[in-house]
């Protein structure tokens, strides 16, 4: 059942200020919604992505610490995605497509194409390198999400791993289809291995159906929603591609509706959620750590050919690491605050 009282909503456009978070127990807190605009970032030589997370005052959603939305891009007769070998530490990468085809290579020897509806999950642990590219013969359009999940301290020093899932579980009801990409939603669990309680799910609502779907939520989780195509109303707020709607904590159910015209195709939305991640992080370039010294060591290891291994088969040089900033990197919590400051 949907609670009869509509949760309070704070809609901020063109700003990164986050509404105050609940301070009481999750089941009595008043949830808020905050609309946070993304910004464009070049990825490789040929792709521009819309970066939705992290933002200055909203660094994480559960353990989700990075969200890039790319496309839809016309890549007919073009190189498409071309991201040379580069390193990662302390995170998992989640690759999810709704159009196109991407080839993954990594320093474990993995060689795997991902197609729409399939999941690539790479666990960096102490260190891994990988590349991503559109194959020479690729579909004319490319559209999807690239996400990172921060590993907790208990898992971030472990061995690297890569897993490909050719399908994920889900269900269909009332003109809507739900695919559980990571974690558990409504009792349906993805086969992806994760290290903190979280969820990532795609909700596809048929165009012109007056579609409406209700999703049961965990009140102790914090949530956010991203529309990849079409338009939707989520928790009463209008949402279009290019923004992230932070939903806060304390919700037991979420309603998604759409009035996208038939000609525009279905509305696709991605739901992110998880238990609040309480470990402050240092995120720089492709590394997730806990201190300035960890990041310096990871950069030096990449520059000198240690730790990360070699990605074989990519037709190009690895990405060089940028220079370290002139100021010391500081750990920040999920709200963007520096502990002890």
From TrEMBL:
Pfam families: Pirin, Pirin_C. The keyword Iron applies. Keywords: Iron, Metal-binding. InterPro entries: Pirin, Pirin_C_dom, Pirin_N_dom, RmlC-like_jellyroll, RmlC_Cupin_sf. Residues 1-31, 313-341 are annotated as: Disordered. CDD domains: cupin_pirin_C. Residues 48-149 form the Pirin N-terminal domain. Residues 330-341 have a biased composition (Basic and acidic residues). Residues 209-306 form the Pirin C-terminal domain. Binds 1 Fe cation per subunit. The keyword Iron applies. Signal peptide: none annotated. GO terms for molecular function: metal ion binding. Fe cation binds at residues 86, 88, 130, 132. Its cofactor is Fe cation. Belongs to the pirin family. This is Pirin family protein.
């Amino acid at each position: 059942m949907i609670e009869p009282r509509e949760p309070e909503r704070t809609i901020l456009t063109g700003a990164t200020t986050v509404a105050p978070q609940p301070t009481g127990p999750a089941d009595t807190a008043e949830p808020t919604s905050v609309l946070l605009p993304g910004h464009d970032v070049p990825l490789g030589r040929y792709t521009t992505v819309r970066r939705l997370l992290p933002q200055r005052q909203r660094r994480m959603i559960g353990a989700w610490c990075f969200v890039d939305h790319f496309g839809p891009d016309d890549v007919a007769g073009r190189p498409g995605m071309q991201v040379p070998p580069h390193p990662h530490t302390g995170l998992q990468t989640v690759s999810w497509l709704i159009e196109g085809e991407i080839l993954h290579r990594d320093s474990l020897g993995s060689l795997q194409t991902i197609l729409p509806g399939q999941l690539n999950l790479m666990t960096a642990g102490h260190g891994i390198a990988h590349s991503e590219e559109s194959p020479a013969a690729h579909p004319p359009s490319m559209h999807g999400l690239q996400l990172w999940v921060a590993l907790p301290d208990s898992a971030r020093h472990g061995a690297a791993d890569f897993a490909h899932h050719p399908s994920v579980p889900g269900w269909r009801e009332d003109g809507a289809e739900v695919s559980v990409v990571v974690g558990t939603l409504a009792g349906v669990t993805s086969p992806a291995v994760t290290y903190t309680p979280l969820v990532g799910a795609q909700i596809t609502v048929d165009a012109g159906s007056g579609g409406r779907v209700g999703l049961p939520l965990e009140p102790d989780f914090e949530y956010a929603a991203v529309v990849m195509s079409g338009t939707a109303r989520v928790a009463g707020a209008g949402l279009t591609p290019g923004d992230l709607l932070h939903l806060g904590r304390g919700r037991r159910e979420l309603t998604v509706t759409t009035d996208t015209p038939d000609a525009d195709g279905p509305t696709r939305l991605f739901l992110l959620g998880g238990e609040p991640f309480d470990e402050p992080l240092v995120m720089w370039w492709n590394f997730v750590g806990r201190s300035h010294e960890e990041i310096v060591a990871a950069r030096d290891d990449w520059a000198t050919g240690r730790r990360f291994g070699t990605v074989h088969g990519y037709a190009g040089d690895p990405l060089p690491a940028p220079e370290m900033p002139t100021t010391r990197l500081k750990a920040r919590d999920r709200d963007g605050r520096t502990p002890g400051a």
